[in-house]
Write a structure and sequence with these properties.
Number of strands: 2
Number of helices: 11
Oligomer: single chain
Order of helices and strands: HHHEHHHEHHHHH
Distance between the termini: 17 Å
Strand order of the largest sheet: 1-2
Length: 267
């Protein structure tokens, strides 16, 4: 299908540059506004969201504790958490507040930023390409959001409860720096969100002819090893956490095989 007359309108280099600048400014303003909202709502961002996984009444900690009692596994119940988070720099808490607000602004405005990026490249696409690229953006956003929530609600509590309470000796107590704690929460959540982009990666590889459904099926056992390694990297060093992460990653891999089949049927 041909491009519309509006889409085929010739644009000079400076027109493209001006359009890109406009999209970047809109994206920056969206992040800035969302960051201000997050900065104002400090108690919600820190007490409820950031520090939530370190508390015994956090929804995941309660669920794991119930699961541990049902399976008679003591290690899953984190009802006696005693994690002490400290700040040792004069401006530490204020700088952490700014940093966290910026991260929150970026996450909250992520769909709008993706939309601005798509709006910039849209005029160069044909009608069929526009529809596929729009779907790719929607799926990518949903996968990232799902991974982000999965990492926050499951991997982050497991990581905090394992590393935050681990002791080489009863004589050594854990006093965790605030910036270290927040860095762990952010990095783990984002890492899982990125890993959840696997189906989209397989889609583009299949489109490029680099992988096929048969190839993915033949290499299941190798992929299982890779996913276990990835799970070990982004989770605490205990087998339960690794299995909890590896199961959805295997499900995503099976979904990727189905996606590759669909790509080859279209070809």
């Amino acid at each position: 299908m041909n491009k519309t007359e509006e889409d085929t309108r010739e644009m000079s280099f400076w027109d493209h540059l001006d359009e890109l600048r406009s999209r970047l400014i809109r994206s920056f303003l969206a992040v800035f506004v969302m960051a201000i909202i997050a900065f104002i709502n400090r108690q919600v961002v820190f007490d409820l969201i950031i520090l939530g996984p370190s508390k015994a009444n956090f929804v995941t900690n309660q669920w794991l504790c119930s699961l541990g009692r049902a399976l008679n596994i003591d290690g899953l119940c984190f009802s006696n958490l005693n994690i002490q988070i400290i700040n040792i720099n004069m401006s530490g808490q204020f700088l952490v507040h700014l940093y966290t607000s910026a991260i929150a602004g970026l996450v909250l405005s992520f769909p709008y930023i993706i939309y601005q990026f798509w709006s910039f490249v849209r005029p160069a696409l044909y009608a069929g390409e526009k529809k596929k690229s729009q779907l790719a953006i929607v799926y990518s956003s949903l996968l990232f959001l799902t991974g982000l929530l999965f990492g926050y609600f499951l991997i982050v509590p497991l990581t905090i409860n394992f590393l935050g309470t681990y002791q080489v000796s009863s004589s050594v107590s854990n006093q965790i720096a605030l910036n270290s704690f927040i860095s762990t929460v952010v990095s783990v959540s984002f890492a899982v969100g990125i890993v959840f982009q696997l189906p989209l990666l397989i889609y583009f590889l299949a489109k490029a002819g680099l992988v096929s459904p048969d190839y993915l099926k033949r290499n299941r056992k190798y992929m299982l090893v890779i996913l276990l390694i990835v799970s070990a990297i982004i989770t605490p060093p205990d087998i339960f956490s690794q299995i909890m992460v590896c199961i959805p990653l295997l499900a995503l891999y099976e979904l990727s095989i189905g996606i590759a089949k669909g790509v080859y049927k279209e070809a």
